[in-house]
UniProtKB/TrEMBL annotation:
Source lineage: Eukaryota, Viridiplantae, Streptophyta, Embryophyta, Tracheophyta
UniProt keyword terms in alphabetical order: Ribonucleoprotein, Ribosomal protein
Ribosomal protein as UniProt keyword: yes
Family: Belongs to the universal ribosomal protein uS14 family.
Protein name: 40S ribosomal protein S29
Keyword Mitochondrion appears in the UniProt entry: no
An annotated GO cellular component: ribonucleoprotein complex
One Gene Ontology term of the molecular function aspect: zinc ion binding
Signal peptide: none
GO biological process: translation
């Protein structure tokens, strides 16, 4: 049995290799929170359509103001 017959002979049902973005099928940078299953690039382009908005976070410890993304219910 050669190496090519053994490589990927079993399907991935668990772990990071088994999950991909539902929009572009990219396995990297996946956001799984709230069941999004969307990569970070697709999330940025579709966040408003999904129902997320940017809100200002309170300024802490003299740092710059940061943006948070919150889900609108």
């Amino acid at each position: 049995m050669g190496h090519s017959n053994v490589w990927n002979s079993h399907p991935k049902n668990y772990g990071p290799g088994s999950r991909v973005c539902r929009v572009c099928a990219n396995p990297h940078g996946l956001i799984r929170k709230y069941g999004l299953m969307c990569c970070r690039q697709c999330f940025r382009s579709n966040a408003k359509d999904i129902g997320f908005i940017k809100i200002l976070a309170p300024q802490q410890f003299g740092t710059r103001v940061k943006f948070l993304i919150a889900r609108v219910s």
